[in-house]
Design goal:
single chain; 352 residues; two-stranded antiparallel sheet; disordered N terminus
């Protein structure tokens, strides 16, 4: 069968990403029982019990990770193909729904500003309580500065794995779909690959958040999940870092609250200071752009975790205003990423 693209499919390829981003940006943060991430978490939790019971080993953890990704990927791929067989409009709706469920710009903004307002109202206990929705660290004894630092660090990290990496793997899936058409002569393959790419990434990221810890329980079992998440985030985090540097440069023109030279110098010096091979990419830029120190000592389940300080000696401590500035950087970075990847898709499609 000769491959033929109709106008609806042409437009479809470019619409899901910007539309999903805009919808999530304005309604993000809403969680419900049938939220895709909840369903994925339930499937993963069920499979974890099975594989952990078999063996608390690296091999068993690796099998758990691979099998879970295959199961969840197959479920979503199946829904993809059923939807597109019924109606292109149904598939369009499903794709937008999945993408906006995976993106986190709106939810991140909503939760961060909520904490900012609580701090402004001097409701420290309320801010500590709400911080748990953003960061896994113990928050019971944190002061205003430490709460603000935690929020800024969470905004930086989630700009990477909650926005940049999701968009990257959606785009990568579409690109693979373009080339897959050479072998599989059906346009349905093209429109499904982007969603499958995002699902695979988000599943791997979810598994890292579940078992990717260095503790007695998950040291061996979760090691594969942690390493896979690091590998998958390696390229998209660096692309996101370059875009964040551009965003700080633009914001510096608009307001003296942002320091593009500080962002670049801090990124250049401290990007490898984070225990994670990727986490320092974005946190170091935030530290320099806002002239604040990030990193230091955190508590997780009562266990102390020390990280190198990111930021130069003359930088101060974070405060509630740092939260708003970090959110603005995240917003602009996210918008530029969406525009950039949409243009990449358009250019590849135009020359296919």
């Amino acid at each position: 069968m000769k491959i033929k693209y109709d106008k609806l499919i042409n437009y479809y390829i470019l619409i899901p990403l910007p539309l999903a981003f805009l919808l999530e940006f304005y309604i993000g943060g809403i969680r419900y029982n049938f939220h895709p991430l909840n369903i994925m978490g339930q499937i993963a939790g069920f499979l974890e019990k099975i594989f952990y019971h078999i063996s608390n080993s690296f091999f068993s953890g690796a099998l758990f990770n691979i099998f879970t990704i295959l199961i969840i990927g197959t479920v979503f791929a199946g829904i993809d193909f059923i939807a597109i067989k019924i109606s292109i409009f149904l598939f369009y709706f499903f794709s937008i729904f999945i993408l906006l469920s995976f993106l986190s710009a709106g939810g991140l903004k909503h939760e961060s500003i909520k904490i900012y307002r609580l701090l402004k109202a001097n409701d420290i206990d309320g801010a500590r309580k709400n911080l748990r929705s953003l960061a896994g660290r113990d928050s019971n004894n944190l002061d205003i500065s430490e709460i603000s630092r935690s929020v800024v660090e969470s905004v930086a990290e989630n700009t990477g794995d909650g926005i940049g990496s999701v968009i990257f793997y959606f785009t990568a899936g579409l690109i693979i779909g373009f080339f897959a058409l050479t072998f599989i002569k059906t346009t349905e393959i093209l429109v499904a690959f982007g969603i499958i790419g995002a699902v695979i990434y988000k599943t791997a990221n979810l598994l890292d958040s579940m078992v990717g810890y260095r503790n007695a329980k998950y040291e061996k079992f979760g090691k594969f999940s942690a390493r896979l998440d690091d590998a998958l985030n390696y390229i998209p985090f660096r692309i996101t870092a370059y875009v964040m540097l551009l965003s700080v440069f633009i914001l510096n023109i608009i307001s003296n609250k942002y320091h593009n030279k500080g962002g670049f110098k801090s990124w250049f010096k401290f990007r490898k200071s984070h225990p994670s091979p990727n986490g320092g990419q974005l946190e170091s830029i935030m530290a320099g752009a806002l002239h604040i120190k990030l990193g230091g000592t955190n508590l997780y389940g009562g266990v102390e975790s020390k990280r190198p300080i990111m930021g130069f000696e003359n930088y101060g401590r974070a405060n509630e205003n740092s939260i708003i500035s970090a959110v603005r950087i995240m917003e602009l970075t996210s918008a530029i990423l969406v525009i950039f990847y949409t243009l990449v898709i358009a250019l590849i499609f135009a020359n296919f």
